[in-house]
Specification:
The chain is of the alpha+beta class and 269 residues long. It has a single domain, classed as Jelly Rolls (Sandwich), CATH 2.60.120. Helix content is 19%, strand content 28%. The strands form two sheets. Strands 1, 3, 4, 6, 9, 10, 11 and 13 form an eight-stranded antiparallel β-sheet that branches. Strands 2-5-12-7-8 form a five-stranded antiparallel β-sheet, with no helix packed on it. Strand 3 and strand 4 form a beta hairpin. It starts with a helix and ends with a strand.
Length: 269
Amino acid sequence: MKNLFILLIAMLFVVGCKLGTKKRSENSQSFKTQLGNVACCEKGQLNQLTDAEKAQGWLLMFDGTTSDGWRGYNKTNFPAAWVVEDGTLKCRSEESRGDTGKVDGGDIVYLKQLFSDFDLRLEWKISEAGNSGVFYLAKEIPGWPIYKSGLEMQILDNEKNPDSNRGRDGNRKAGSLYDLITANPQNAKPVGEWNSIEIICLQGKVVHRQNGVKILEYELWTPEWKALVSKSKFSGLNPDWENIAKEGVIGLQDHGNDVWFRNIKIRTL
C-alpha cells in the first residue's frame, strides 16, 4: 500500500509539472504572437478574410475590386496613377501614365481609421528596378510628404535599384525600416514574385516580418531610437522626427514605379 501511495504522489507531481509547463508555454506564445513570431499571412482566398480572421477581429483594407477606403495623402480623391487591376491595388509607373503632368499621382492612405497598436499584413510585388514602401504611424500634415512624419518599411528591387547600395549597411533594402534599420536576413523574392510582409506595432515595440521570417525589431522613443534617428536623413528633414506619433495612418508609396499590393488586412492589438 505504501508503494502504491508513493506511485500516486509521483504521478500527480508529473501531471502538475506538465500543466505548469503548458501554461508557461501558452503565456510565452501569447507574447510572441503579439510581437510577430507567428506565421505571416494566413492562407485563404485572395483579398478575403477567413472565418478565423473575422473572429479574431481582422479588418480587410482592400476588397480586390474597388479602391474603397483609400484616398491620396493630403487629398480628397483617389489618385488616377493608382488602379485596381486583376485583384491588386497597383501604382502605375510614370512611363505608363503618359503625360505625368496631367495624371494625378502620389501616395495613398487608408482613410477609415487611425492605428496605434496593430498587426498589418499584406503582399507586394515590385517591377524591375522599382521602389515603393509601406508607411505607418504617419500624420497628414498640409504641405508635407508622408515620409516626413511616418515610418516606412522599404519595398525595393534589391538587385537593380540604386537605392539598395545607399544609406548604411543595406538599410534601404527591401523590408528595412527605411534609412534606419537593416532587414536581416535579406529574404525578398526576385522581381515579379509576391512577397508577404507583416508589421506589428505594440506599445512602441515594432517587428517587421517578410516571407514568414522576422527581419528586424526595435523600440520607439528610447535613447537607442533617438541615436538611430540622429544618424539618418530624417534628422535634417523634421527636427521632431524622433518623436514619432503614437497613432497615425497606414500608407502606400507612389515612387514612380509599377508596384502591386493585395491581401491587405489589419487588426488592432
